Each structure stands twice: as structure tokens, then as C-alpha cells.
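User
Take a look at the entry that follows and flag anything odd:
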Amino acid sequence: MRPTDASVRVAIALLAGAILAFEIVLLRIFSFTIWHHFAFMVISVALLGVAVSGVVLQLVPRASEPAPRRAAQYALAFAGLAVAAVALIGRLPLDPTRLGEGAGQWALLFAYYVALLLPLTAAGLAVGTLLKGFAASAPAVYGSDLLGAAAGAVAVMALLEPLGAEGVVLLVAAVACLGAAVLRAGGAGDPGRAGAGSPLRAAAPALAAALALLAAIPFAPALLDIRPGEGKTLGWLLARPPGTEAPRVTATRWNPLARVDVVENTPPVTWTTNPRAPVPHPGETRMLLDGDAATPVVQFGDTPPAEMALLDWTLGSAAYQLLHPQRVLIIGAGGGLDVLTALHHGARTVDAVEINGAVIDFARGPLAARGGRPFERPGVTLHKAEGRAFVRRSQDTFDLLQLSLIDTWAASASGAYSLSEGYLYTVEALGDDLARLAPDGALTVTRWDWNPPRESLRLVAVVDEALRRQGATDPSRHLIVFGLGRMANLVVKRSPFTSEEIARARELAAERGFFVVYEPERPAATPYAAYLSTPDRRAFVASYPFDISPTTDDRPFFFQFGRWSNLQLFGAGWKDNPLILSGRLVLVAVLLQALVLSLPLLVLALRGGAGPVAGSRAIAGYFAALGVAFMLLEISLMQRVTLFLGSPVLAAAVVLATLLAAAGAGSLVAARRAALLAGPWPMTGAIAGLIALYAFGLPAVLRAGLGLGDAARVALAVLLVVPLGLAVGVPFPAALARLAARGGSAATGLAWAANGVGSVLGPILAALLALDVGLSGVTVLAGAGYLAAGLAIARWWRGPGPA
């Protein structure tokens, strides 16, 4: 007796949900152990696992027979290997910023890749075996697979906070074991398998494994022990010699936005100190987001804000002392230091915006008393919201809008954030900020001022362009830049600074131990003055050692300062920025590893189990082009939706779940519409046209909806992704049907392998291309990929006879 169709559908839904949830939780874990922009590597490895499984199933037919028993074995292997992979990755001290120090970090990067490949290959074998073994029920089985995957994407977002990433990993493994149990119970009467007999007896081992994993969830943090490398601030702090005053983590919470650790006994962060301050620092506790970005809680205790003298000496207070604002908006309120700064300097109302609920809970709960209770003060309103969305939907005007170091200095110094999206630091974002200001209001932003300057100078370039778009005839009159140590604080007025305000800025700097980096009337000979005074901004940018061109929503990589032409700087004595191109270098490294691992699979598939396949080049070209094009589209959509939703992990979950489910629906439509099989051009040409429409129209639609509430933005993102998903779901099954109609069953494995290889390379190419051609360019190239697929197979498609 074979398992019923119902048991197979349930099992594959459970497996697909577990697999996609595993991929998404890996994104969250990578954000903590390394950085979130390694999402492309997770997706790439997942698809390489699918490619490996497709080749194995083609070349070793017995690997999928009998289907239920084999699939159950693969599901159990996935469960065990997934837990082992996370435990291993959590202990590997990979630090991409140290790739220039020798072969060790490159080896660790390769180890990450292989550790992930093993469980995801097992997962691919489990799903592929069921799809192959129950081909007669393929539409229903494939539909269950996609529905399960979509459910997994949704579930992981809901479970990250209560279970933590470690707990979700064990839950994923338990669900995979449950899928194996369903398969074993459904085929309990199969005489060719061990455990034949009652369904419960057959399923008992897998059920026992699932229960053991569920019981272990409360102990998951200790069992998996996920740690950041010393390249992360938390890793560096915890590596300090133990002792009574050694830093220690006293509380931890995961959520879709970050892992938040409360760390006691930490040295003060740079932006709360000033060597000239005549008052002692009261000490502080840090909240660290994803092991790196710090939000300090200065231990003011019950001191009234008016008496917090330290706040006269921090660089973030410069705009307050210069302009004395009454109505203040703070983006990224964190632990409340900026709120206290505003109150200390006489602000009447303060709107504080913070996106991370865990940060809010810590700041208003266990850390509130020691941190001066900033969010309980009269006149203070705390908003849980994403900063750009709040600014877009706000109807209020403010005297001052403040953004202070809403990321991490260590990563941006080394180039580790070079692939990270800086959607708060684009021309469009700062333009929205300026629009919310009163006529004489100001925007103040604190960034880092390296030598030669890059972060703060790029910010000047962004502000300069934003002011020009709003009609400023001479943006240089609207800026003053203060400095302290390696920090720079830009104060940008909506109206030009008066001579009296400029003179006061000089006095303030002398009083507080700051220095004036730039002011309009007597600018020092610095790159800031040179940039703002040149009539040809583009020529200045082209000749500058770093890329400090204004970032936009289409190219939001604020921390990517390197060019391909700067490769000679790598390891050439630039101690301040030896890995300024680390983002590009990591991408190239992963691309090379993917090629080394995937191309042999394609060669095996081209040869096939019974020799070469007729028309193999056309078939391989078509399916590989589909793989690359689909991933270019998916990654560009993720980036667009990241801006829209404010979280890369939430964006990945929404895009993956919606795109997969819609593509599945498109596949079912293709199976029932014979007209779609007439030729490749109606399909690929229509898709390319739709993608072009999205490339140029989607940014405007998302920008218009940015001020909607959280739920409405998620709903709009889903609605926008569905049409593309329906369309791109057609070409793959249509071509498989054409293969079957021409008697080309031997080419099916080649199709899967070629598509898998293209899908492996696509995410990496998307990240590389986005740095240079922008997200719209990547989207356009996705459309070109679909056109290339149609061109590759057009002649073969028209040819008669067997494949």
C-alpha cells in the first residue's frame, strides 16, 4: 500500500514550510553572526542544494525509490543536518572584514557554504522525491508544496520573538520530522519497508524525534550557542578578559528586526563622551542590535533632565545649543539619550520614533530607571514605527529632526556594511525629512568622519542634492558641520544660515571642545568646502579616492565607497580602510565558490545517465536563463520591499511567500492552457514587458504608499508581487510539458540542474550588479534574461521529433 494522496500533500506541505522557515531564520542568524546582506548567499546555497538533489535523482534512480520511504529518510536527514549546520555556523568566527588577512577567513566562508549545502540538499531530495514519485498527482502535490512554503514564511515571522532564532531552528527540525512521520504512517502497509504494520508504530521513531526537538526548544540557546565573531562589537566585548567588571549579557531577545542584547559593564560609546567635559560620565549599559549597532542607556538615574550636564558636551547636542528648537522629531530613539538631550536643552515636545519593539520594551522596562525614564517625561511621545514611513505620513512640522548614528561605526569603518541598504540616507529620504521642517527648522545627522572623509562627505553630497531638488540655489549656505574625534555632525537648515548663527557656531565649538569642519562664511580648505564650492560635482566625485556620489532609493548602498578601479587599495597600507571593498570581494568570493560547486553539476546533467541529450545546449540555456532571471527579479523585489517595509527579513518573507505562491498558481494555469505551450516568445516576451513596467513604475507606487500603516504596506506589497509571480510561474512548467510531449524524459534532469545552476548564480549577480546599475537596472536585466531564455530555445521549440 502506498501513502494516500492526502498524506503526501500534508507531508510535502510540512517539509516545504520547514525548509522556507529554515532559510528565513538563517537570514536572521546571519544578521547576528555576520551581516544581513548575506541573504543572497543563503538563497544561493538553498538553490544549489536543489540543483544537487536534481542531479542525484536523475543519475541515481534508486535514490528516489520507493518514494515515501526515501522522502521520509531525507526529511529526517534534513532535520538533523539543519540543527548541526546552525550549531557549527554559530561557532565559526567568520569575519568578512578580515578577508585580506590570509586564507583562514576564505576557508571559513567556504565552510559556511558547505555547512548550509548539506541540509538543503537533503531537503531538495525529500521534496524532489515526492514530486517525482507522485507525478500523477503533480498539480495537487506541487500546490501543497507552495502553500506549505508560504505558511512557513509567515510562521517564522510570528515565532521569532517568542522562540528566538535557536528555538525556531529546533521547531523547523521538529516539523520536518513530523513530515517524515506522516509519510511513514501513510505507507505503513508497504511490505518492503521496516516498521510495516500499524501507522503509529511506523511513525513512532520520527514522532519521537519531533517530540525530543520540541522538548529541547527551551534549552535551544545553550544547545546551539550562536555567537558573533570578534568583528562584531558583542564578540569583541565578550572576548575581553573575564573579571568582576567584564562586560556580560543580562538579557536577550530576538525579533524579525534584530537580536537585541542588553550588555552591562560596557565602556561608554564614543558619542556620549568628550575629553573636554568637566563632568564625570555616570556609566552606561548598552543595547546591542545584531551584536553590533549600539544604543546606549546612560545611567542618569533620577537626575532631572535640566541637570544632566554631560548632555551639553555631546556632539549630538550641537544643533540644540545652536538653534534652541521647541518641537523635535527623533528617528531611531533607541535607549532615549537623544530624547534626554532635547529635554535638557528646553524642547517643549519630542516625538521619538523607534521601529524595534524589543528596544522599546527594554528602554521602558528594566532599563528605564537607570536611564532617566526618557519616555515617561512630559511632552514626550514614543511611536513604534519605521522612520521613513512615519515622516511620510506625519502632518506635523518640526523645528529639529534628528538622526544619530542609526547603525554601527565599527562595521562602516571597515567596509562591512558596504552591501547594506541605507534607506534613511538617500536623497529621497532626506528630502522627505526636510519637507517636515518649519521654515527655519533644521535636520541634524551624526555620522563618522574618517580620513580622508567618506561617510560624512557622502552625507553632505546627499544633502546637497536633496536641497537642490527642493529649490535651494546655494546649498552651501544651508550647512554647518561640527566635528569631535572621528565623528561629524551635520546641521542642515531649510533656510540659509544667518551670519549671527554662523558666528554662534564658531563660539559653540570653542566652548564645547568641538571643531568646525565646515561653515559657509570662512570655510577651511577641506574636501567639504571643495565639494560644495565646485560647479562640477560629478567631476569632483570622479576624481575623489572614494565613491561619495549621492545615494538614492535606486542605489541605496550608502556604505559602499569603493570602485572596481580602487582594487589596488586592498591591503596596500590603507590601515584606516584596508577592506573598503569588502562587500564586492565577498560577492566575488561567493560567486567563485558557486561556480566551482555548480558547474560540475551541470556537466553531469548534460551527459545524463544514458549519454548526451539531443538539443541539450538549447534546453540548458533556456532553463539556466530562467533561473538567473527569476533570481534577479526576486532579489530586486526584496530590496524594493525592504525600503517599503523597513526590514530586510520581513521583506524576504513577504516576497518569497507571495512570489512562490503566485508562481505556483501560474504553473497550474499553464498546465491547463495549451495555448501557452505554442512557443516561448508569447511567454517570455510578455514577462519581459511586465518586468519593464515594474522596473519604472514600482518605485513610484511604493513611494506613494510609504506613509501607510504597517499592515496596509504588507498588504500592498503582496498585491504588487502577485502579478509578477503569476507570470513567471508559466515558462518553467510550459517547457517541461513541451519536453514531455516530445518524448524528452531524459532531458528533465538536465532542465532541473540547469535551472538550479542559474538560480545559484542569480542572487550573487543581482547583488554585484545592484552596486553599479541600481535596482531598476537589475530589474531590467531580469526582463532581458527572460528574453534570452526565449531566444535560446526558440529553434529547438519549433523542431519536430523527440528531444
Observations:
- Residues 191-195, 408-419, 570-581 have pLDDT under 50 and may be disordered.
- The two ends are 35 Å apart (CA to CA).
- DSSP finds 25 helices and twelve strands in the chain.
- The first strand starts at residue 248 and ends at 254.
